[in-house]
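Practice record 12: protein with adenosine monophosphate.
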Amino acid sequence: MSAATPAGPLAAGSTIGIIGGGQLGRMLAMAAARLSYRTVILEPQVDCPASQMANRQIVAGYDDPQALAELAAGCDVVTYEFENVPVSAAEALAAQVPVFPPPSALEVSQDRLVEKRFLNSIGLPTAPFRAVDGDDDLAEAIAAFGGDGILKTRRMGYDGKGQRVFRDATGEDAKGVYEAMGGVPLILEGFVRFQREVSVIAARDSAGNCVCYDAAENVHVGGILRRSTVPAGCSSHTAIAAQEFAVTILSRLDYVGVLGVELFDAEDGLVVNEIAPRVHNSGHWTEAACAISQFEQHIRCVAGLPLGRTLRHSDCVMENLIGDEVFRAPELAAENNLVLHLYGKAEARPGRKMGHFTRLVTRPVRP
Ligand code: AMP
């Protein structure tokens, strides 16, 4: 099989490689198993959440050449569960085995500056932004945005990490900040005044067909997703526009797989916050409220199976179990119409995603 050609449909018993061993990899491995695929996880941490559900784990760094060669040799297709896979590793793999989503999607989503420029270049609005490579850049950017903004590291930021908020700031407030943020490339974003945050989980197959799940309304606390509610409280016009944005992104990236798009529902219209080239926390509700979850959808895409329908049979609310909230599990398990999912992490550290649950708000059954 040529590395450039689509992988599928993969025969039963074929092997899917997954780079990254967290809960997203775990849920992908579970979905793959239901479709009779085997999975191999590449992850340095032993007994990671994904490996507990997979057939095999290669315990090594994501850029270990020997491990990547082993992964390529042992898999029919490779995918990933997080966006910080080194692009060079994904490209090296893609020369030997099909890799979906395409490594170019990693390049766009790994750097907030590249991501925003890409989004603007395809006609999608983002927060105003300025690249910041020193205190002088920061002082200028703060002045340009009227003293308010969010400073973020361009790379490797997640769950609100590597961010600093400025309100009514002046050039004086910029002093020493660049070094304090680690001396790495930064971006200052102007504040978007939004009514709500929404996200869309969308998928594209190798023939270019696209499907979208219903938009979710998301609440973040301390930069971490707390709750996703479906349907979102926005107008149906806005929800459809968000799906159209997602399809535009998928098509322009020539994407194969599931993608998460986070947006602000602002007064002047939708603004894209960020894209994630993977299954997404704000799509976990799909495992409880749709026949085909985002995880199965992704496996279908990378395996060359037909896309699944994205219809939702129930309204629902998904909540993350963070840190010691996981100890609520027995009480939650006793509730009706609640789907509980725990990630098998041994230690409930503060801020660590330990599981989630989805409450289904079932509709009356027609007589
Ligand atoms: P991020 O890591 O970029 O997803 O940011 C984490 C959270 O901070 C978002 O979900 C928003 O709640 C908030 N946020 C980030 N960027 C902006 C912005 N430019 N304007 C307003 N709020 C923002």
